[in-house]
Write a structure and sequence with these properties.
With 94 residues, the protein is an all-alpha fold. It is 73% helix and 0% strand. Helix 1 runs antiparallel to helix 2 and helix 2 crosses helix 4. It is globular, with a radius of gyration of 15 Å. 10% of the residues are buried. The model has no long low-confidence stretch (mean pLDDT 92).
């Protein structure tokens, strides 16, 4: 008998990340570090928004980017790589 899932949203999110990871490894043969970095960005974005991907809005990303630019001192290329990781994850999921 299967036990009910206590946190189905978390399970769905983890399954989405796992599928995306497999896509990057399988078809694209990307480096493990690249995939981990991208997953880390997606996890950070989720923790900042406190929302699951199916509830993200463009405003969430805009707010995060503004906050990163104002407080982190990250290079523009790093900010763009974060945006790219979120975009690729959302493209995969949709």
């Amino acid at each position: 008998m299967r036990k009910p899932c206590l946190h189905p949203e978390d399970a769905v999110f983890e399954a989405m990340l796992e599928g995306w990871k497999r896509q990057q490894f399988g078809g694209r043969h990307l480096d493990v570090r690249t995939v981990r970095r991208r997953q880390s960005v997606v996890r950070r974005f989720m923790s900042v928004t406190n929302e699951y991907p199916w509830a993200w809005t463009p405003a969430h990303l805009d707010e995060w980017m503004c906050d990163l630019v104002a407080t982190s001192g990250l290079a523009g290329s790093t900010i763009r790589s974060y945006q790219g990781a979120i975009r690729m994850f959302c493209d995969y999921c949709t």
